[in-house]
């Protein structure tokens, strides 16, 4: 169970912080340009944080107590492959979910 | 005549935003389901969607909180996912910087992937648009998107309360993230960032307070920026030779 104080702290501060990130240049900095090296790093934030978040969840799924799990691994591979080939987020989620349920049905 | 033009620009924005409904509806529903599975109430789930309006960051926060990660780490990790918003903000500033402070504040609130992507494209194509027309277009793109984000978060939260455990929803978050990540891997630099992030996160798994994820994120960003620099220098040399 998530501690309510921790949850509300994150909800409120994440809201405020996300707004601040969206407002910082538009609202405060105006027309002054950013140093190129800052922009260059900002470009890769999402693609640097999300894979690091996902990788341990795929390799050590908590539903199996951290043991490598064939249906979940297959679902991850299919989702990633479909995403790379089609660039279609929804289709990839559907194919990944289908693989997961198919695998759980066959092996479970 | 001016009002007519502005009116047509409004509908142009709504039309350009409309296809994203197909993405927004299932994605916000999924967030509602995952959040309630993690123990959030419907009200808590909706509040998060209204205050944050950023799917990936919301999923990140819920996933980390569910695993009892310290509050500060959950917050910083989710904010790191949203750092791209600062880049959007910087990139729109030349077009919207002259709007009033209130208008810029509202634009900042509604600055999401879709409003950014549509607007920056149209502003480049229509350099003669007035500031009013630019704002009209921007908010028009948000019209079919943001209200549905809130609404389907609630619907997902209501559904989530009635889904049994056997549905393996533990894996909804990894699948969603993988589907989001794959289309981002457009260049060698993006691939390098993702690869370094994965390796670092796996090696540092179990480091106290989930600091491993933050280190992996920083290393990934540096890798991406560095490869971009190398590749652009190489392209310059080949172009000059």
Describe the structure.
The complex is a heterodimer of chains A (108) and B (241). Chain A has 108 residues and is mainly alpha-helical. Chain A has 2 domains: 1-32; 46-107, no CATH class. Chain A has helices at residues 4-29, 36-42, 45-59, 70-86, 89-107. The radius of gyration of chain A is 19 Å and the shape is extended. The model of chain A has no long low-confidence stretch (mean pLDDT 88). By secondary structure, chain B is mostly helical. Chain B has 2 domains: 2-167, no CATH class; 185-241. Chain B is 77% helix and 0% strand. Chain B contains 13 helices and no strands. Chain B has helices spanning 2-17, 21-37, 42-52, 55-66, 71-81, 83-96, 101-109, 113-125, 131-142, 146-160, 172-181, 188-203, 211-240. In chain B, helix 1 (2-17) runs parallel beside helix 9, helix 2 (21-37) packs across helix 3 and helix 3 runs antiparallel to helix 10 (146-160). Chain B is globular. The relative contact order of chain B is 0.14. Chains A and B meet through helix 1, helix 2, helix 3, helix 4 and helix 5 of A and helix 2, helix 3, helix 4, helix 5 and helix 6 of B.
Write the layout of secondary structure elements.
The complex is a heterodimer of chains A (108) and B (241).
Chain A: H1 4-29, H2 36-42, H3 45-59, H4 70-86, H5 89-107
Helix pairs in contact in A: 4-5
Chain B: H1 2-17, H2 21-37, H3 42-52, H4 55-66, H5 71-81, H6 83-96, H7 101-109, H8 113-125, H9 131-142, H10 146-160, H11 172-181, H12 188-203, H13 211-240
Helix pairs in contact in B: 1-9, 2-3, 2-4, 2-10, 3-10, 4-5, 5-13, 6-8, 8-9, 12-13
Tags for this entry?
heterodimer, A: 108 residues, mainly alpha, 2 domains, B: mainly alpha, 13 helices, 77% helix
Overall shape of chain B: it is globular
Total domain units of chain A: 2
Low-confidence stretches of chain B: none
Greatest chain-chain interface? A-B, 73 and 97 residues
Mean pLDDT of chain B: 89
Overall 3D shape of chain A: extended
Report strand % of chain A: under 5%
The chain-level mean pLDDT of chain A equals: 88
Count of all domains of chain B: 2
The number of E-state strands of chain B comes to: 0
Given the structure, what is the number of helices of chain B?
13
Computed over alpha carbons, the radius of gyration of chain B is: 20 Å
Provide the low-confidence segments of chain A as ranges.
Answer: none
Helix content of chain B: over 70%
């Amino acid at each position: 169970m998530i501690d309510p104080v921790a949850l509300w702290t994150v909800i409120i501060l994440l809201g405020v912080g996300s707004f601040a990130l969206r407002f910082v240049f538009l609202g405060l900095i105006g027309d002054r340009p950013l140093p190129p090296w800052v922009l260059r790093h900002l470009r890769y934030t999402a693609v640097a944080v999300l894979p690091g978040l996902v990788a341990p969840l795929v390799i050590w799924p908590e539903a199996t107590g951290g043991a490598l799990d064939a249906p979940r691994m297959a679902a991850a591979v299919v989702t990633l492959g479909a995403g790379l080939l089609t660039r279609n987020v929804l289709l990839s989620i559907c194919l990944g979910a289908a693989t997961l349920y198919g695998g759980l049905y066959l092996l479970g | 005549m001016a009002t007519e033009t502005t009116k047509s620009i409004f509908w142009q924005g709504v039309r350009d935003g409309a296809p994203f409904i197909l993405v927004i509806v299932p994605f916000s529903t999924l967030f509602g389901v995952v959040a309630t599975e993690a123990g959030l109430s419907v009200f808590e789930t909706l509040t998060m969607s209204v205050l944050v309006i950023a799917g990936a960051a919301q999923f990140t926060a819920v996933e980390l909180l569910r695993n009892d990660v310290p509050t500060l780490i959950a917050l910083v990790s989710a904010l790191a996912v949203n750092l791209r918003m600062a880049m959007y903000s910087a990139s729109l500033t030349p077009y919207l910087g002259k709007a009033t402070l209130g208008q810029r504040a509202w634009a900042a609130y509604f600055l999401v992937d879709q409003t950014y992507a549509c607007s920056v494209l149209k502003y480049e194509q229509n350099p003669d648009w007035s500031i009013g027309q630019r704002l009209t277009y921007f908010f028009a793109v948000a019209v079919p998107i943001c209200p549905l984000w809130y609404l389907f978060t609630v619907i997902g939260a209501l559904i989530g309360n009635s889904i049994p455990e056997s549905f393996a929803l533990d894996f909804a978050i990894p699948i969603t993230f993988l589907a989001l990540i794959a289309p981002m891997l457009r260049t060698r630099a993006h691939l390098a960032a993702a690869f370094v992030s994965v390796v670092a996160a796996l090696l540092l798994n179990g480091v106290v307070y989930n600091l491993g994820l933050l280190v992996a994120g920083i290393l990934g960003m540096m890798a991406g920026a560095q490869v971009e620099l190398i590749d652009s220098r190489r392209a310059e040399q080949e172009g000059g030779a």
